[in-house]
Each structure stands twice: as C-alpha cells, then as structure tokens.
Please model this.
Amino acid sequence: MSQERLIKKYPNRRLYDTSTSCYITLDEVRKLVIDGSPFKVFEKKTNEDITRNILLQIIMDYESGEGEPMFSSELLINFIRNYGESSQDSFKSYLEQSMEFFTEQQDILREHLTKPKIENPAEAWMDMGKKQFELWQQTQKQFFSKSDK
Model:
C-alpha cells in the first residue's frame, strides 16, 4: 500500500500536494480516489482535517454537472431524514456495507467477464451467483451483528 499523501488547502482555496510539491485540482483528487491512493486534506491555517468536505465537494460538482445525477431527490430526502435520528448509526452502517457489497459484486462480475474463455456459461453464471449470495449473507450477518450492539 502506498503512503498516505498529505494535501493542504490554502486560504485561496488551492490544494497543495506535499508529496509532489505542486498544486492540484479537485479532479486530480478524484483521480486519487479512483486509483485507491490514500490521502488526507488539511486546512493550512487551522490544520483541521477537511477530507470529508473535499470528497463532498467532488460529489456535489458531479451531481450538479451535466449528465445523469447518481442521487435522486427521493434518496437525498431519505438521507436528510436520517440525520440526527436514533437510527443514524444503523443507516450509516447499512449504507457502508451496501456499498462494500456492491463493489465486491462488481469485482466478481469484472473477474468473470475478463476470463479468456468460459467453457460452460451456465456454470460460470451459477458460480458468480453463488459468490454473490455468499457475499450477501456475509454482509447481512455483519449488519445485524452491529445493530445488536
């Protein structure tokens, strides 16, 4: 795993990557996310960790830009409704595990689609379905074990 990169946000709103000693854009931060490069963003003046704020800003730019948004109004309404509720922790845990499950499913699908030659397509789909079902069961067990605490 690569070393965590430190990015400083200056009062002029520019982002400075201390590992490359140059200014970077939000799109370059997005590429770090896509590449799986660990990083943290700190406010230069206060040394406050503002990584979440930068990630939210990237999402906001994509959601308000051209193209089809990922989050519907109904989904955003449900997010807002869960803030401050007693179910907020469970909701957060459920979303995190659902995203993890979705990512794992995509990896399984990608793995099957990139195999050079599939001898028996029906068997390959059954195998993929079995792996997805096992992941789903594992995710549900984790979710319910956390909600019992």
Observations:
- The mean pLDDT is 83.
- The first strand starts at residue 5 and ends at 9.
- The beta strands are 5-9, 15-17, 22-24, 39-43.
- DSSP finds five helices and four strands in the chain.
